[in-house]
Amino acid sequence: MKLVRFGEHHNERPGVWLDNTPVPGQASIMDVRAMAFDIEDYNAHFFATHGLDRLRALLHESHLKLIPAAGIRLGPPIARPGKIVCLGKNYAAHAAEFDAEVPTTPIFFSKATTALNGPFDPIVLPRDAQHVDGEAELAVVIGRTTRRVTEADAPNMIAGYTILNDVTDRDAQRDGKQWFRGKSADTFGPLGPFLVTRDEISDPHHLRITQRVNSQTLQDDSTSQMIFKIPYLISFLSATITLEPGDVIATGTPAGIGSARTPPVLLRAGDIVEIAVENLGAQRSPVVAA
Ligand code: ZN
């Protein structure tokens, strides 16, 4: 299934994205709340109470409440999560372009949940920010309360996968020593368009991942190049930190980010950033000034 949230900012409704229904070639959205009023949103409660199984059952009902997807705004595909855990330098070639040090232990940092943005919403450049660029990332959404799991059990804790653009203000990142502020400006977390459930992604470490800015390809790599793989990350984190349903783990970005290029490719008002991960869809974010 492809879960979406649609409607106005901060007032999105849960939906399921359906291709070719009812009109071939045109997508529609199943309006979940119109069919099951107790499913308020894709939040921790939803995942913890077998919400995905309920959605699958709804899809088999004889009368689906469908709306045409064309022209409908999509928000992030999950409600505000408890935490967004990001990973620094999880692709060796990116570690080389960043500061040449390849980590031997995963480097985690956090992004404010208020940074989350819809997959087609504008990225707003903070006033005076001169060195902002994007990072294409595969994001994992946790589906169950996760504590001290083994690597073998870790995949069972995953609800599904989506795309995060880990937009970064490089000046704030480097000047602040700690990365939180540079990663967390409002709109610096385009997420989506879909939460694709785990059953549809047979191997999350075999997906093409790309970033384009104004049609120039900056990143084009495979998630096979991750240094620390997803089961290890979940096992390692959950040894000391409880992961809750809806939590997001962003798995790091490949080489090619704009700020590391010569000459640098930095985001300016009027630019268009496109991020895609194979089988997870694509984002398209216009960049605007504050
Ligand atoms: Zn990142």
Describe the structure.
The model has no long low-confidence stretch (mean pLDDT 96). This protein has two domains: 2-75, no CATH class; 84-289, Fumarylacetoacetate hydrolase, domain 2 (Alpha-Beta Complex). The protein has 290 residues and is α+β, with helices and mostly antiparallel strands. The strands form four sheets. It has a ten-stranded mixed β-sheet. The protein has seven helices and 19 strands. A hairpin with a 3-residue loop joins strand 18 and strand 19 (281-289). The protein is 15% helix and 30% strand. Bound molecules: zinc ion. Zinc ion binds next to loops.
Which value, in Å, is the CA radius of gyration?
Answer: 18 Å
**Total domain count:** 2
CATH class of the largest domain: Alpha Beta
Tell me the total number of β-strands.
19
Termini separation comes to 36 Å
In order across it, which strands form the biggest sheet? 4-3-2-1-14-11-10-17-5-6
Question: Bound small molecules, which ones?
Answer: zinc ion
List the helices and strands in order.
Answer: EEEHHHEEHEEEEEEEHHEEEEHEEE
CATH superfamily of the largest domain: Fumarylacetoacetase-like, C-terminal domain
Q: Helix coverage percent of residues?
A: 10-25%
Low-confidence region ranges: none
- CATH architecture level-2 label of the largest domain: Alpha-Beta Complex
Summing up helix and strand content along with how strands pair, one would put the structural category as alpha+beta
The total count of helices amounts to 7
Largest sheet: 10 strands, mixed
Shape: globular
Might you state the CATH topology name of the largest domain?
Fumarylacetoacetate hydrolase, domain 2
